[in-house]
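Journal club side-thread
Mid-discussion, someone asked how the predicted structure for our own chain would compare to the paper's figures. Pasting it here so we can look after the session.
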Amino acid sequence: MVRPRWIAMLLLCLVVAGVFAWLGQWQLGRAIDTAPVQKSTSEQVKPIADVVKPGEYLDDRLVGQKVAVDGDWVAGDFIVVSSRYNDGVEGYWVTGQLRLKDTATPTSLAVAVGWTPDRAKADAVASALNASSGGARLTGRLISDEGPIVPDPNGDPLELTRMSPAALLSRWHDVQGLDVYRPYLTSATPLGGLQAISSPAPDERQGVNWLNLFYAAEWAVFAGFAFYLWYRLAKDAWEKEVEELEELSAGVDERGV
């Protein structure tokens, strides 16, 4: 393998593998550059009806979309949800039922109106809001339903630890014939002296062209194959030479005998 011709072939393989590696890097760059993602529109406030319909699941691409809603609070339906985190600090949300205006059928949206680390304050704010009603024009981010869970058998059966409009619906009043949005809204403006809910803009992800990514992997395989081919050819030639030497040595021994 250290003979001049095999060293020359190794150098040729290095050149070929380098070309393949460059092509693979080029394809890898195109896998990202040729599939740009359109700039997110999540920060553009849209009417909720333009984003999702009542009863529909929220598309993953629309999670965090800012929307505007106009409605009336339903008195008695402000409920505390626990296990809510604001910038890593555990606390509580106060949530309410907002009955939207200008809808063909009665339609409601679950709204988280603020956060506090103090359970007593959360209960006090919910009680104060339940004692009144009124209209509200809100903006906030639309978030997917977390889904209900089975309550802890050793805990309070009325304790809510998930932000689930389906679970809240079972506690709301006047729900006969009601349409409900599956996602919920985190209000940009807190109520009742609560703190604003930390709800940052969703991350923008870079698009990937999977076909170009596959081509990049192919070029890497080709580069590896170039070295393997050199190795097999050199090894086969070496084994052949060893075999010929063994045959020659065996022939000399037989003549000597």
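Post-session note: The chain has two domains: 4-34+207-252, 46-187.
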